Amino acid sequence: xxxxxxxxxxxxxxxxxxxxxxxEIGKSxxxxxxxxxxxxxGFDTRSSSPNLFNSLASGLISTGCNVIPLGMVPNPVxxxxxxxxxxxxxxxxxxxxxxxxxxxxxxxxxxVSFIEETKSIENIFNSKNFxxxxxxxxxxxxxxxxxxxxxxxxxGKLKGKIVVDFLGGAGLTASETFKxxxxxxxxxxxxxxxxxxxxxxxxxxxxxxxxxxxxxxxxKADFGVVFDCDADRSIFIDPSGTYLNPSVMNAVFxxxxxxxxxxxxxxxISTYDCASELEKFTKDHGGSLIWWRVGHGFIEQKxxxxxxxxxxxxxxxxxxxxxxxxxxxILSTLYLAKILNETGKSLDELVNRVKLHPVEKVYxxxxxxxxxxxxxxxxxxxxxxxxxxxxxxxxxxxxxEWVLIRSSQTLxxxxxxxxxxxxxxxxxxxxxxSNLINRKLRRIK
Length: 445
What we know:
This protein is an alpha/beta fold and 445 residues long. It folds into four domains: 9-140, 3-Layer(aba) Sandwich (Alpha-D-Glucose-1,6-Bisphosphate, Chain A, domain 3); 158-237, Alpha-D-Glucose-1,6-Bisphosphate, Chain A, domain 3, CATH 3.40.120; 246-352, Alpha-D-Glucose-1,6-Bisphosphate, Chain A, domain 3 (3-Layer(aba) Sandwich), CATH 3.40.120; 359-443, TATA-Binding Protein, CATH 3.30.310. Helix content is 38%, strand content 20%. The protein contains 14 helices and 18 strands. β4 (88-92) and β5 (101-107) form a beta hairpin. The radius of gyration is 21 Å and the shape is globular. The two termini are 21 Å apart.
């Protein structure tokens, strides 16, 4: 089925992802695990998430697995619970996808998402050859509390005034985490809303940042942050209300972490869609940068393999592997507050020290996954000297500028990312290659 993606499961609820399908996904996972395993499950604020949770849990229990229901919690709380208790876990979400979508993330006891294992789940799903057993529900009430206490012990007491826009997503259930660690937060869209406040897509970019940008300026906050629906991504706003490019935030985190490293090589991972100058920036601060493919599951795995201290994507997934390997928007926010506390500098001051060329990422609707993949495949043939990045290709224009064209792993979209020597030049590059992609899509039936 087309719902099985590179590192999770996603579909449109009621169409290609129904309660019956979720039941059989649960049976498939339980069969893959061999039954008799504890599996924790959390879910986001979408109206379809509780139903999918119930079906997924029933499927697992029917194979002999025990289910620990975490309820409506942020995605990182579910990953944390599985990682801390050394068990498998699931999270019901479609992350930044439109509200009509939903999905399931599955992860291992080491905090890394299923990748190759997803294909095995799909094969079992298609075979309908499921184990039979008698598992049960196990009660759990302290997931967010334990997560909060762990981060408080790691980061200490913090202070700061922060605007947090939850966009009606699951991050709102962790608002007390910020307060208990000492932060004064000004919450926006902090009540669960089945329609996700009418937002078409919880991609924390563009107009979805406007409320946070206005509020940061009005309240004279230290900074603002906007989460996606499951709160594993975090977009930051500076005190003047300006959106901060994720490559710049990568640099802010890299500088702080490398300057405080005590031993080791100081490895850092960045995805192919980040600013090219991050490599020199990392080296100048005593570290080494590894370029890697886009996708949180691939980054989690690479963090463990390389024992990297930190990793970052242009999509604003940030990974603090000195703590744990999965991305966490709440931790990213707390970590930034920690940097401001320990350096005594404002976010403006830290950002002004980072000199990177501008990077922009745009999403082009391809209508279907088949059309998306065919267009990327054909475009790649048009650029024989490009560099393969596993799900797309990268064209090097000169010593600084480049274009990355790849298939989205989560939606029927083509992701275009580029770096330019100036904002004007970047707009020209993005326009040129957007037109090229759209022309290609129009030719494909």
